[in-house]
Amino acid sequence: MGASFDNYVSERYDDWVAYTEALCLKYGVKLEAREVVNESFRVLLERNGSKLDRLIAARPGRKPVAEFMMKRIIRFRVSSPRSSIRYRPGQKFTSESLEETPETFSDTNVDYSGFMQSILEQAPFTDLERRIFVWVAVEGKRLDDWPGEESRRKLFYKQRSAILKVRALLHRKGIFKE
Fold first, then answer.
1. What is the pTM of this model?
2. Which has more pLDDT, 66 or 160?
3. Is the CB of residue 102 less than 8 Å from the CB of residue 108?
4. For the chain, which terminus, N or C, has the lower number of CB atoms within 10 Å?
5. How many helices (H) and strands (E) does the chain have?
6. Is the CB of residue 129 less than 8 Å from the CB of residue 157?
7. How many whole angstroms separate alpha carbon 118 and alpha carbon 14?
8. Nearest 5°: CA angle at 123, between 149 and 130?
C-alpha cells in the first residue's frame, strides 16, 4: 500500500461518511457514521488487503472497484439487522416502532424450524437443490465448504434455482410480495 492508496482514502473518506449518514437517515438507524466507515474499511482491508492498489486503479471514465466495494460494505453494515455494527452481544435493541423493547437482541430469536420444514416439504426441489438449500439456509454453512464433487458454478446455479422456487412458493402463499 503506497502513497496513492493513502491519497485515495483521504480524498474519499468524507464522501463515505456522508453516504453513511444518508443511509442511516434512510433506514432510520442511529449509528455513528465515522464508526461505520472505519469498520467497513477494516472489513475491506481484511478481505482484499493485498489487492488494494489494483482496486483503486480506475479505468478512464469509471470509478475504482474499491469505491463500489466500500459502498456495498457500508450499505450492508447500515441496512442489515445481522450487521455486527448494529447489534452487538449485550447491546440494547432500540426501535421506536416497537411497543415493547426486549432487553437484548438475543431475546428476540424466533424458532423458524416449522416454517423451514413446510418450505422443504412444499417446494418442488430436486434432490441436489434440497441438499444445497438445507446446507445454506438451514444449517447456515457456506457453499465454499460443500463436501460434494459438484463444481462451484453448478452449486451456485442450483442454489439460485432453489431460491427462486422458495420465492415462488412464498409468493403463492402471499407471504412474499415484490
1. 0.47
2. 160
3. yes
4. C
5. 7, 0
6. no
7. 48
8. 15
